[in-house]
Specification:
globular, six-stranded mixed sheet, four-stranded antiparallel sheet
């Protein structure tokens, strides 16, 4: 759905986006991560056909972003970091205005689509209320609904949970997941919130100073900074026999015990193949296992380490 090759944007002597190359498949949620000033918003603005690249090219659903920008804008829905809603108008009036702007001129078709999308976002019951009375979370939901009114197959979301409380953030995340799952939308998600990326994205790209640091799945990024995650085993009772049984597994390289919580933290050469044997040995040593956890670094830990390595 999106192809990007050598995409570059310079403002005078400042290079905001520096030869980015990536692709996004149909129905994929692709995360664009990076610190402030990394070039995320500039990348989205180029892909949406709002500004032209200085070098390189990109196609959005087959349309070139420079000489077919009108078709690109008809193909995508975009949520900017600071979406402007008309607060003196009702939710329905806002949707009606933008539906007209996107070319939905048939009255019945437009009315049906507005109801469909407000129902989807659970805003239909508030359709006659002025937007000024909405909470920040409801305004964000309406802004996303507005971006979808013309049924775009591709959605660009720039910081969709910025400034929201935890409950509203979760609601917006759930809606994005629902759009991907039920509407089969292709979504480019630009965010500072690593929790959003970890829960929503199939793949992510970390950029810094306009350049790509790494592209991969969240698991691949975690594996990049930790080749062999540890296994945490919680037991009903931690005994010396259980500890010795764990140490006898050939692939075990280190065993750390915490008697206060009856937990073992164990490092293996190969977690995937060694864990079943480890569990078997502990059970045969009369260990009552309450839980087995693979301890992997979070996406946030991977992000911070990779960004710090890039800065060095």
């Amino acid at each position: 759905m999106i192809e990007v090759e050598g995409l570059t944007k310079a403002f005078g002597s400042h290079v905001a986006v520096d030869h980015l190359s990536f692709d996004i498949g149909e129905g994929e949620v692709f995360g664009l991560l990076g610190p402030n000033g990394a070039g995320k918003t500039t990348t989205i603005r180029m892909l949406a056909g709002l500004i032209s690249p200085s070098e390189g090219w990109a196609k959005v659903r087959g349309y070139m972003i420079d000489n077919e920008s009108l078709k690109v804008r008809q193909t995508v829905g975009i949520l900017t970091e600071n979406p402007s809603l008309y607060e003196r108008l009702t939710a329905y009036e806002n949707m009606d205005f933008f539906a007209e702007a996107y070319g939905l001129s048939d009255l019945q078709e437009k009315s049906n689509r507005i109801r469909e999308i407000l129902d989807f976002f659970e805003l239909w019951e508030r359709r006659t209320d002025k937007v000024a009375t909405f909470s920040k979370g409801m305004k964000q939901k309406l802004a996303i609904a507005r971006a979808l009114v013309h049924k775009p197959p591709i959605l660009f979301l720039d910081e969709p949970t910025s400034g929201l409380d935890p409950e509203s953030s979760k609601e917006v995340r759930d809606l994005i997941a629902k759009l991907s799952r039920d509407e089969k939308s292709t979504i480019l998600l630009c965010t500072h919130h690593l929790e959003d990326a970890e829960k929503l994205c199939n793949r992510v790209m970390i950029i810094n100073k306009g350049k790509s640091v790494i592209v991969g799945t969240p698991d691949e990024l975690r594996d990049r900074i930790s080749d062999n995650p540890a296994v945490e085993i919680t037991l009903k009772k931690l005994t010396s026999a259980v500890i010795e049984a764990a140490k006898k597994v050939a692939q075990v390289t280190q065993v750390n015990e915490d008697k206060s919580t009856s937990k073992l933290t164990i490092t293996l050469d190969d977690t995937q193949s060694g864990t079943p044997e480890l569990v078997k040995n502990i059970v045969e040593a009369d260990g009552d296992i309450l839980g087995v956890n693979i301890l992997r670094p979070s996406l946030e830990e991977a992000y911070l380490k990779l960004i710090n390595e890039e800065r060095k």
